[in-house]
Amino acid sequence: xxxxxxxxxxxxxxxxxxxxxxxxxxxxxxxxxxxxxxxxxxxxxxxxxxxxxxxxxxxxxxxxxxxxxxxxxxxxxxxxxxxxxxxxxxxxxxxxxxxxxxxxxxxxxxxxxxxxxxxxxxxxxxxxxxxxxxxxxxxxxxxxxxxxxxxxxxxxxxxxxxxxxxxxxxxxxxxxxxxxxxxxxxxxxxxxxxxxxxxxxxxxxxxxxxxxxxxxxxxxxxxxxxxxxxxxxxxxxxxxxxxxxxxxxxxxxxxxxxxxxxxxxxxxxxxxxxxxxxxxxxxxxxxxxxxxxxxxxxxxxxxxxxxxxxxxxxxxxxxxxxxxxxxxxxxxxxxxxxxxxxxxxxxxxxxxxxxxxxxxxxxxxxxxxxxxxxxxxxxxxxxxxxxxxxxxxxxxxxxxxxxxxxxxxxxxxxxxxxxxxxxxxxxxxxxxxxxxxxxxxxxxxxxxxxxxxxxxxxxxxxxxxxxxxxxxxxxxxxxxxxxxxxxxxxxxxxxxxxxxxxxxxxxxxxxxxxxxxxxxxxxxxxxxxxxxxxxxxxxxxxxxxxxxxxxxxxxxxxxxxxxxxxxxxxxxxxxxxxxxxxxxxxxxxxxxxxxxxxxxxxxxxxxxxxxxxxxxxxxxxxxxxxxxxxxxxxxxxxxxxxxxxxxxxxxxxxxxxxxxxxxxxxxxxxxxxxxxxxxxxxxxxxxxxxxxxxxxxxxxxxxxxxxxxxxxxxxxxxxxxxxxxxxxxxxxxxx
Length: 735
Hints:
This protein is α/β, with parallel strands linked by helices. The protein has 37 helices and 14 strands.
């Protein structure tokens, strides 16, 4: 008999403590702020990733935006890959999902006479999230022998010892929900092949969620459904800063200005920036210097009276740089280690200290490793392995080591051993942010362009701002097609590229204008606005589309009049994109034009107009949106309900209550969510009915809405459901 209770209790204990460590604090008084347990999730949004073959036409656009946990639950059964930038919250989302699933009450086990064990009922095919599967975190950075061994080791660490045969049987029976973290952190090609085969063998029985930072590293394992972590919005970033720094938040936001988006689109970097600002009151010019200042201040502020048994604190950065570099270097040119055995780490430091004349080197290495672990600069992980607290930190220390090594590297060695491999891309970018020598920066970018044009463009934009003119100027001189050159200029994300792109906005070739507009949208600089506004009147619809899209990315109020004019353009795609851009800018001046589009003949245009009005949160739009609640297209109804929830309009309550019985589950889900945001007591009977809906997302949304309403009128109905035959319904009611 398998006792799952001890395992789940261990997860709840360990990860609840982990979560508490990540809640926001008032850094002035270091007092915990009372709030929901999801302060760092910041209502993260994911977006489905379109195939490269899909057209960008509004009528073809099938992009879906979801709350991160809802998206993962929705697609786990068919397997889903969560993609996101370093520090965007992928692993945090998995850990939150692990904790939520572990906290759910277990269903009554069904006896398995053949195996003589008790196992939760198999509910494969009905979706995930409270349907009885046992959640297991599979951390690929600890891979040594097999995926099955990673599962066994995780169960063992949480009070459950199962043999491989039992684990395979449970996988076959669909009893597990696997949360597989870090495809890009797999140490070797052999490990990738093992993971690929494991997924193929268990695809039909076991729901799985995977994460990766880059589809180019480790691939996508053949997973068709992909969700991409979306950058934090300006409002989310501002909310985070004000909550974390109640006394200094406004000053920090003023100092950041337009650079808030550059630093703050990922929560980890925004968190680090807040930590540094409270100490220094200053904002570093780039990410590399942010890491450097933070790590130096951390080392300097460690209590001087705490005894150190290994080498002195002055050598700690040097040791960490060497350790990080060797982990990134791996055992083969194509391999990367994000975690290594403690014994291996001791060997690396022993050799370093021996080469530098420290005696006795092994004892010094062993004691130094203990010092670094005691002061949280690195951590001891599963199976006696050492790791940095985040891969970004490992990459920073690797960058510092590369910076010292760079002058001694020949051109051939730099290209062949570093620029030629994807694992060095992030450390090289961080390194260039630390390079002061103009000639050295130009040399690295020039060599990178000879290896890979896109890598060279990214590195050109990573150089310090005062060096970027020379690095970016290397791109126009390349002997490649003009359209590809424009794409590379956009990849730099550097304002120094604008002087090359602006003249192309007037090129006689509409494809060139179109591409230049898209590139300027990538750069997101206000310096590009005048030229883009001119393109809003271009005769080619595709050019207008790209210009409107770029202006939406830049979020410039100067573009509002021109975008409003496009709301009446004859081309549906142009209207769609103009409405989208105005929603991003949140322009109240656009409200009348957007309201008119609510009656447009094209359902995609109606959908986008409703979405934009929801972003603007205008009460003027309420009546038009209420009409759309009865639109024949389910997507339009869904978006109208969502917008009314954002506006929090009580006028919409009756229309939204009707949608609680809509045949489309997504519409029911969104209507319930909107009623929760409005906090309407009129909706309670309809929401209680949805607690028995067959779709998990609908049940979840209804339960959440009742929690938001906080009405005692809901209590009797919820109490009745505490004895419902379906444990999901019981869970939702209790929640």
